[in-house]
Design a protein that fits this description.
InterPro entries: DHFR-like_dom_sf, RibDG_C
GO molecular function, one term: 5-amino-6-(5-phosphoribosylamino)uracil reductase activity
Organism: Jiangella rhizosphaerae
Protein name: Dihydrofolate reductase
Pfam family, one: RibD_C
Helix content: 10-25%
Structural class: alpha/beta
Mean pLDDT: 95
Low-confidence stretches: none
Radius of gyration: 16 Å
Length: 193
């Protein structure tokens, strides 16, 4: 089974979006460089961010996201983001009316079922869990192996928390990756068991 990684870009004070679900300047680092990060060429980062991000993105086999994120993005128009093969959506509701059943999206009830399905789909590749409520639930359930965050130099003051509503202490090891890019600090921590 592949490693389960909780990930997002986050403000210095721990938020992945403002109160209105807007990322604001969190993603400025994705347009602050001169190295295209994907085929579109719209996303350009520094060489250091490119090397770090591509090495992380390329082995991802499945991404887990909550229904809220799925709805905010209009289901990425049925195409998983960043070239990921499958998206597992944690939801208590059925797929949207008219949803293409051939799209590589899987709708499950609960984080445990989502991680199990994502690991089945990903095989020995990485499983990415979007930070926020679903990521926090997976961390609290002991299902996350690593926490990765791209820390942007912005303070929101309030908004959607990186760890969602986690209300218990969880220890992480010292960061095993610390990379400074342009307008971002890339960090990676193993979850202490």
């Amino acid at each position: 089974m592949g490693k389960v990684v909780m990930y997002s870009t986050v403000s210095v004070d721990g938020f992945i979006a403002d109160e209105n679900d807007q990322p604001g300047p969190l993603f400025d680092w994705l347009v602050s460089g001169d190295v295209p990060l994907d085929e579109s060429g719209a996303v350009k980062v520094s060489q250091r961010s490119y090397d770090y991000t591509r090495a992380y993105w390329d082995p991802i086999g499945a991404t887990i996201a909550g229904r809220h994120v799925f709805d905010l993005t209009d289901g990425w128009d049925g195409k998983p983001p960043a070239g990921v093969d499958h998206v597992v959506v944690v939801t208590h509701r059925p797929p949207p009316e008219g949803w293409d059943p051939e799209a590589p999206f899987h709708f499950v009830d609960g984080v445990e079922a989502a991680v199990a399905k994502a690991q089945e789909l990903a095989g020995d590749r990485l499983v990415e869990v979007a930070a926020g409520d679903v990521g926090g639930q997976a961390l609290a359930a002991g299902l996350v192996d690593e926490v990765r965050m791209d820390v942007a130099p912005v303070v929101f003051g309030s908004g959607k928390r990186f760890f969602g509503s986690v209300d218990a202490q969880h220890l992480l090891d010292d960061p095993d990756v610390v990379i400074q890019g342009d307008r971002v600090l890339h960090l990676s921590y193993r979850v202490r068991r």
